[in-house]
Amino acid sequence: MIGRLHGVLLEADENRLLVDIAGVGYEVVVSERLAGKLQASLGKEVSLYIETVIREDGVTLYGFSGKEEKQCFKLITSVSGMGPKIAMSVLSMLTVSSFYQAILLSEDKVLTQVSGIGKKTAQRLILELKDKIATSYVTTKPTEIMGNNLDEVSAALQSLGFEPQEYLATLNELRELGYSNNELIRLTLKRLGERR
Q1: 72-136: which CATH number, 3.40.50.10490, 1.10.150.20, 1.10.287.110, 3.40.50.2000?
Q2: Closest among 7, 1, 2 to 19, alpha carbons compared
Q3: For residue 158, how many other CB atoms are within 10 A of its CB?
Q4: Are 155 and 184 in contact (CB under 8 A)?
Q5: What is the pLDDT of residue 196?
Q6: Pick the residue with more confidence: 135 or 169?
Q7: Cα angle at 93 between 43 and 162, to 5 degrees?
Q8: How far is CA 175 from CA 60, 102, 192, in A?
Q9: What is the pLDDT at residue 146?
Q10: Domain 4-64 class, CATH top level
Q11: Residue 105, SS3?
């Protein structure tokens, strides 16, 4: 089983990479988010965590930027009826932290923005993963992580008429830079205004 690949990135399509390792080209399925990030690394060396999935019709390598992303993929595919395709759609649309947050806060509206996930599927994901995420992947209480930060910011943005799919990607990107809630709201609104 392949767990990690390190080589030269030859191609980066919408959700597939071709990585050259000692003259052998490995095709790796990745999220659209990761493929986009790696466009700038064509011709350079890259490292990917790999989940090898063996099926009757062949072997597929799924690639991730880090262990946390790979763990999230495995968690989603552990749910009955959730295959790698849906897991990759989740990782294309949401960051790992925003996915965990949606599960912990039972935000099925956020999950249904992902291609292939309807209301029933979102509710099944929440039901089956909430306890696993709360006990295994969160070191502090969910309310400490979410309630004070994103929940408050989300509520403010939604009260201004914005839908989660409009602001989540921008908000998560800004959150990683360590802004306060007020700054998050102001900067997210600024970026959203530029798009409209």
Answers
A1: 1.10.150.20
A2: 7
A3: 14
A4: no
A5: 55
A6: 169
A7: 130
A8: 33, 15, 15
A9: 41
A10: mainly beta
A11: coil
pLDDT tens per residue, range 109-167: 889 888 889 999 999 999 999 888 876 665 433 433 344 455 677 777 777 777 777 77
**Position 58, amino acid:** G
CA distances from 164 to 34, 45, 110 (A): 21, 35, 6
Element (H, E) at 196: none
Task: Please answer whether residues 180 and 150 qualify as being in contact, where contact means their C-beta atoms are separated by less than 8 angstroms.
Answer: no
Q: How far does Cα 196 stand from its chain's mean position?
A: 25
Q: In the beta sheet, which residues pair with residue 7?
A: 46
What per-residue confidence (pLDDT) applies to 70? Answer: 94
Total count of residues recorded for the chain: 196
| Three-state DSSP class for residue 24 | strand
Q: Output phi, psi for 81, to 5 deg.
A: 85, -5
What pLDDT is recorded for position 136?
66
